[in-house]
Amino acid sequence: MKILGLAGNVKRPSRTASLVEALVSAATSKLGLDGQTIELVDAAPILFKALRSDQLDAEGRAIIDAVEAADVLVVGSPVYRASYTGALKHLFDLVDYRALTGKRVILAATGGTPLHGLMTEHQLRPLFGFFNALTLPTSIYATETDFTDYEIASPVVQERIERAVSELAQVLPLSDHTAAARAHANRPALASASA
C-alpha cells in the first residue's frame, strides 16, 4: 500500500514539511507502507500552469496521478489566513472528485499560535468530506515552539503522531498474513466461549 504526504508549504525550510514527513515516516516504519512526500513549494509552480485538470502537462499529471493512486494521504498545511494554503487548494481543485472516495487521510497543520489549532477541523476536514474520504479522528497541530531547527521536539506532538498512526492501522485492510494470524489467535477464545 502507498502513503503519500502532501505538504502545503510554499517556502523552505518548512515546519509543515517536517511534520508531514514525520507522519509518513512513522506510518511506513510501523505499518510497512511505501511512502513518498510532495511539497507544494516544488509542485505548485507545475500545477499552476493548469487551471483545469485537462490542461495539465505530463509533469503535473504525474503529481495528480500520485495523489489519486495513493491508498493513504497525509495532508498538512501551514495556517494561512485561518485556512490552508491556496497552493494546496489548487492541487485538490485538479483532483477528480471521485478519486478519493474511501481513502484514509491524516490531517496536520502548523501555525504560529495555538489560536489556529482548529483549522484542521473547520477547513481541512470538510474538504475531504466533499471527496468522501475517511479522515482519521486524530489530527496533528503544531506551533513554532514544538520545533527545534525545523525538527519536531515536542513529546506531545510525537504522541499525537503515534496515535494517528495507530488509528490508521485499525482502518487499513488486513494483509493475508495478518488476517490468518488474527484468526489463529482468536480460535481458542472462540472455542472456549462456545464450550
UniProtKB/TrEMBL annotation:
Identify the residues that the record assigns to the NADPH-dependent FMN reductase-like domain, covering every copy. 1-144
Q: Extract the GO molecular function terms from the UniProt entry.
A: FMN reductase (NADPH) activity
Q: Where is the signal peptide?
A: none
Family indicated by similarity: Belongs to the SsuE family.
Concerning Pfam families, the annotation shows: FMN_red
Which EC number applies?
1.5.1.38
Name the chain's protein: FMN reductase
Query: Which UniProt keywords are listed?
Result: Flavoprotein, FMN, Oxidoreductase
Q: What class of enzyme is it?
A: oxidoreductase
| Source taxon at top rank | Bacteria
| Organism encoding this protein | Rhizobium binae
Question: Which InterPro entries does the UniProt record give?
Answer: Flavoprotein-like_sf, FMN_Rdtase-like_dom, FMN_Rdtase_MsuE-like, NAD(P)H-dep_FMN_reductase
